[in-house]
Design a protein that fits this description.
Largest sheet: 10 strands, mixed
Number of domains: 2
CATH class of the largest domain: Alpha Beta
Radius of gyration: 20 Å
Bound molecules: magnesium ion
Structural class: alpha/beta
CATH architecture of the largest domain: Alpha-Beta Barrel
CATH topology of the largest domain: TIM Barrel
Number of strands: 18
Helix content: 25-40%
Strand content: 15-25%
């Protein structure tokens, strides 16, 4: 399980662009490549929110400078080192930096051992992962545009779709929007609601009342309150017959332990490239399993590296939920990456190549990026 010494760390940040189908503006992604002394390469990705991309790149360079202090480098020892360095001061940007490096070490380890990541994580991994579509758009689609989008997605074979009913809508309008969609989604389409922490905290409960009163069929409700607001999440979960999802902006095992101890969620969605490491995500998933809670990694990231890691993680876990994809991001990611999975008829098939199973073209990536930096290690 030893990776050897890392000789080079490279970082790219991509240009934000309008998606090919015009549905949304795609944010910047941060990719990382580590290369060891034998020339084996590993790819990783950090979950970056707008305006923080270069800050996370700096954190990666700082963290990477300590990587060769570990004598027998592997993802577990790197994760321990990152936790030691953060000294209990967890934060999403630091955790995203450590996630990116650790993800690249898993990719490298898979290549060294000629095994896909899912097989490194489990002896009983699956080949197929159920996915759900995120329909988020910064262009704030009205009900007609959303209906049109959902219709198209269903005709493309997608069976699970997440919407944002409170984006620019009151709880009543949000419920009407759901009602219109229910008329076009068939009984075998699952509808998820992301409330994305409404500015007015009463709106989550008001929407829930409409849903419960009308027995509206909903697969899950996400972020009715901020992930740190465990007290309100617990009381919301207690009055909801629908599974509750939380955790996309939280990191570290301690936080999720508290969420589980206080019975605040049915499904946890730590970000695949922001939680800190796959080692920590696995620990969270083990604790969740014991509590009867499922895990669906958040993936507001590229459909290249982070999404490939997510598919491998979901394939390796028996308590994984559907995996998150953005169909509008797929063609942009294809400009520089052949990912570790293929979406066929609403399902993700893993390609079983070693590591993350991805094939990146770094010159195509550079052509789509506004930032590149490298660190040479001795
Ligand atoms: Mg969300």
């Amino acid at each position: 399980m030893n990776i050897g010494k890392i000789r080079k760390v490279e970082i790219w940040i991509t240009n934000p662009i309008l998606s090919e189908d015009g549905w949304s503006n795609i944010k910047s992604f941060l990719f990382l490549r580590t290369t060891n002394s034998d020339g084996v390469e590993g790819w990783g990705e950090a979950f970056v929110l707008p305006h923080r991309e270069k800050g996370v790149a700096e954190l990666i360079l700082s963290l990477a400078s300590s990587i060769n202090e570990i004598e027998t480098l592997n993802p577990h020892l790197f994760s321990e080192k990152a936790i030691e360095i953060c000294d209990n001061h967890y934060g999403l940007d630091f955790s995203a930096a450590s996630s990116a490096i650790e993800m690249s070490l898993w990719d490298m380890l898979g290549k060294i051992n000629e095994k896909p990541l899912s097989s490194l994580l489990s002896d009983n991994s699956k080949d197929t992962v159920q996915v759900y579509v995120n329909t988020w758009s910064d262009q704030i689609p009205d009900d007609a545009a959303l209906n049109h989008r959902v219709n198209n997605l269903i005709s493309e074979g997608y069976k699970s779709i997440k919407i944002y009913p409170l984006q620019n809508r009151s709880p009543k309008e949000g419920h009407e929007c759901i009602g219109k969609l229910s008329q076009i989604t068939s009984s075998n389409t699952d509808l998820m609601l992301d409330l994305a922490v409404p500015k007015n905290p009463n709106h989550s409960s008001e929407l829930l009342e409409f849903i419960e009163k009308n027995n509206t069929d909903i697969y899950w409700i996400e972020e009715p309150y901020d992930g740190l607001d465990i007290t309100n999440l617990s009381s919301f979960k207690a009055k909801s017959s629908i599974p509750i999802v939380t955790g996309e902006k939280q990191c570290g095992v301690t936080h999720f332990k508290e969420v589980l101890n206080r019975n605040s969620a049915d499904i946890l969605n730590p970000d695949i490239a922001g939680v800190g490491s796959l080692v920590e995500l696995n620990e969270i998933a083990d604790l969740s399993d014991k509590a009867g809670v499922r895990v669906s990694p958040h993936c507001w990231n590229s459909m290249a590296i982070a999404a490939s890691a997510m598919m491998h993680f979901c394939a390796s876990r028996k308590n994984s939920e559907k995996a998150e994809i953005y169909p509008d991001y797929i063609s942009a990611s294809r400009n520089y990456c052949d990912p570790g999975f293929n979406i066929i008829n609403g399902e993700s098939k893993l390609n079983k190549r070693p590591g993350l199973g991805i094939s990146m073209n770094s010159s195509d990536l550079s052509a789509k990026s506004f930032y590149y930096n490298e660190l040479i290690l001795n």
